[in-house]
Amino acid sequence: MEQFYKKVKDSQVDLSPIGVETLQVNITKLCNQACRHCHVDSSPKRTEQMSKITVDQCLKVLAKYPSIKNLDLTGGAPELNPHFDYMVEQAKALGKHVMVRHNLTVTFDGNPQTKEKKDYLPDFFSKHQVEVVSSLPYYQEFFTDKQRGNGVFSKSIKSLKKLNALGYGKEGSGKVLNLVYNPVGPFLPANQSSLEADYKKELWNKFEISFNKLFAITNMPIHRFKDDLERAGTLDDYMTKLINAFNPVSAKGIMCRSLISVGYDGRLFDCDFNQMLDLEIPEGSSNSIFNFDLEKLKQRTIIFGNHCFGCTAGAGSSCGGNTA
Fold it and tell me: Pairing with 267, which of 203, 209, 211, 306 sits 20 to 30 Å away (CA)?
């Protein structure tokens, strides 16, 4: 932890908050997948769910603060929270931009615990003009299935075709479909623009699939991915790679400066990664959605750790891709 603070100090980078434009809400840890790189440790066995009371409090916060323009719903598979549809509908009624971290396969798999079907999701997203952000580790089946499980690639392609048929990823439609790339292994992402061009070419030529943007995201050295690195004996090498690639320009654009992360239980965090490490905003600032105070949050000191090197390496990494 001290190593990151020292690097920031030596680089003379100001990483104080600049506001809160996005409320990123993790509404469940339940997922129909159990990906190797998942920093949430989501799986079909998880039971954590945001309650209706906490969902309503998030909506009250959105209504109170017009400057919070975006609701970013994540999980697990956020669609597996029983109040997901309600939250989307109410946030849109407030005039907020709603993004959903959609894994594409939940449309076909449904809820692994209740067996509830989710095949209506593409139409639901389309009706409410939801921005869909979906992980597709690579445009080839082998690498995607290696990271996310057998059969994931083929289901993902079918899901993307459904979204395209509704206008998603089509220029001028207003229906935004962005894809997320994670390296398969202990590597930094390649250049985001080059990757995006490759993805667009390959997905169109092979499947006639189109999308808007590609976000290149560094795998964070926490939880499941960290465990993989430790088993392989490559954790130290990976951390050295991240530290050596520290970029002050990328650091200035990290998401925690303009975002607040909300846990399923209503606790507040500087980012989703801090949430998964249980590094909550200290009591006395504004540490719960139930005592949410925008002015206090804008004055807080962001909590950093050595995992933050993952967001500041190279061209940077955040939930919206490169930061430099």
Answer: 306
